[in-house]
Fold SDR family oxidoreductase.
Amino acid sequence: MNRVAIVTGAGKRVGRFLAEGLLADGWQVVAHVREPGDDVPAGAIRIAADLAGGKAAAEAILAACPAAPALLINNAARFAADSLDDFSPDELGAHMAVNVAAPALLTAAFAAAGGEGDRLVVNILDAKLAAPNPDFLSYTLSKAALAALTDLSARSLAGRGIRVNAIAPALMLLSEGQSAANFEATHRFNPLRRGVEPSDVLRALKFLVDSPTLTGETLTLDGGQRFWRLPRDVQFLEPNR
């Protein structure tokens, strides 16, 4: 029987790329999307759920699995701009519900589902955690909490043979509100002068899958950008024209 993987946010952007890569490698992929009409890669099992829905959403995603899953990728995320000057507890709560509480509930449900052999959870973080800046405050706080969840759940689940790791990529794809010119100017803004691509995340994922003794670790994919300790998010360092 093919191995079963869950990918949240699998309808677009890097989540879709990862789902397609897993399908190509022979995995059965349960592709989570938010809305029932959202598209998923051909061959994937679609499950629609609002991750802000708490435990019911996690249970619905696990119930869509044809067998006990061997891989969970917590990729879906809320990403909205805010700062300390316009900080809102409601916005922070919305980020925490999707970016932290949902991965925690899914990880717990994944662990409870059982299964044999190596089992792996991969949380998608953000490279900015290695060199923080104050932009996207609530988003950054939620990703920092997800990084803590990665460490704590790795410690909690190691005795059950379940590994938990993370991948933290830098800017890969055009962000909402970002111009193509700004993206072109900032995508390779790092010491290596190499832009991070979704294919880099897929390679990192495959490395984690193939490393059965690796747990509690984060792979940062940023071309060394963290060495520069930028004062602002990289897209704000160039005109957005």
